[in-house]
Design goal:
Number of domains: 1
Oligomer: single chain
Helix content: under 10%
Number of strands: 3
Strand order of the largest sheet: 1-2-3
């Protein structure tokens, strides 16, 4: 198995690109970085090796009444 992750990605609340915009190859998740309102997914194409960043919206913040 290569040094980057190739298993299925978990379901998320945002839209995540599945294919490389440069060559159409499959993208593999390398790292997920959590943020306050979004997650930042670093992805690498398994065909051409290019790196892409997906910003995935996080869950809505709970409201207090």
């Amino acid at each position: 198995m290569p040094w980057f992750e190739t298993r299925e990605r978990p379901k998320s609340s945002g839209t995540v690109r599945n294919d490389c915009p440069e060559c159409g190859g499959r993208l593999a998740v390398m790292r997920v970085i959590g943020g306050r309102q979004a997650e930042y997914w670093t992805m690498r194409c398994v065909r051409c090796g290019s790196i892409h960043l997906n910003i995935v919206d996080g869950p809505p913040h709970p409201t207090t009444h």
